[in-house]
Amino acid sequence: MSGDDDILFERRGGLGLVTLNRPQALNAFTLDMYRRLDPVLRAWEADPGIVAVVIRGAGDRAFCAGGDIRAIYEAGMGIASDRSLTAAFFREEYRLIRRIHRYRKPYVALIDGITMGGGAGMSLNGRYRVATERTALAMPETGIGLFPDVGATHFLNRCPGHIGRYMGLSGARLGAADALYCGLASHFVPRARLGELVAALAGAGAIDAVLAAFVGDPGPPPLAPLQAAIDRAFAGNSVEAILAALESEVGDDADWARKTRTALIARSPTSQKIFLRQMTIGAGFDLDAALMLEYRISQHVMAGHDFYEGVRAAIIDRDQRPRWQPPTLGEVDAAMVETYFTPLGPGELTFD
């Protein structure tokens, strides 16, 4: 398959249809895919014949599992010839996310299957986010030495209570009912009806009315009965306090707390502390401010250790034994965390 086939564009009536076409890579975005998508979205926005845009993933496993972290790893490690990718990828991805957030026409993301990282950025920041019974939505970045980005400072801070902290620190996966409960999905449509939905949207009817005609019931959200426990455990001002609260949880939620604590302990101590600080600083940020903050953090992370070690352990060697530096939360002090928030000077992300 050529690179030109990685993302497909077609018009169906009044609909502009985007298909992420890397099913073998769970439809992960490459920089070239972002660069091909941006001018098409611009053209469709200006085209009076296009009334809405739909973005979907090929295959039956994923909408989009994220960005091409292997390529970023190879650039940062000097394996690839173009080392500028560690800046260009984030910069161009974030600018495209902003375009989607401000898109003047209905933008409908079909988040069927795995939706993580950059896939969440390209869907959750848009107007309509359609989940199915196969949706698996997560922000697992702290597990590879990165941090939840792509606007997560904005959209995770708007989840009920402290669910955003829970998602970012633990990498928990949400199904459709939970995605709706958190406001991350806007609609639930059974997977078997997605083809009909796309055909109906191409008929140039009122988007809200079309979506309403296909909405189903995903059932009760599993997170709802856990809300009180999540809010108790994740209210702390430090990762250490959150771990202690999880350890002290008793009663019906004790098993959930034990599993969640185990998940946190395995993740990069530095990434976890960055993320908690990021969520605190960005609690009231709009998307522009969130992306500018996240770009700043991303470039400091690209100059560090844990991202490359996390990708090595998860993707390159697949030994699942990352050697984080520093290896413990206690060794990641406040001064160290603040270095990741230091302004980049002329290298800051800006918007036109």
Task: Characterise the protein shown here.
With 352 residues, the protein is an alpha/beta fold. It has one domain: 2-enoyl-CoA Hydratase, Chain A, domain 1, CATH 3.90.226.10. Helices cover 45% and strands 11% of the residues. The strands form two sheets. It has a six-stranded mixed beta sheet, sandwiched between helices. Strands 4-6-8 form a three-stranded parallel beta sheet. The protein is globular and about 60 Å long.
The portion of residues assigned to helices is 40-55%
Tell me the strand order in the biggest sheet.
1-2-3-5-7-9
Q: If classified by CATH, what would the architecture be? A: Alpha-Beta Complex
User: For the record, what is the CATH homologous superfamily label?
Assistant: 2-enoyl-CoA Hydratase, Chain A, domain 1
What is the CATH fold-level name?
Answer: 2-enoyl-CoA Hydratase, Chain A, domain 1
Q: Tell me about the largest β-sheet.
A: 6 strands, mixed
Given helix and strand content, the structural type is: alpha/beta
- Contiguous runs where pLDDT drops below 50 for at least 5 residues: none
The ordered string of helix (H) and strand (E) elements is EEHEEHHEEHEEHHHEHHHHHHHHH
Instruction: Name the beta content range.
Output: 5-15%
Indicate the overall shape.
globular
Distance between the termini: 35 Å
Quantity of strands, as a count: 9
Radius of gyration: 20 Å
Number of continuous helical runs: 16
Name of the level-1 CATH class: Alpha Beta
Mean of pLDDT: 96
How many individual domains? 1
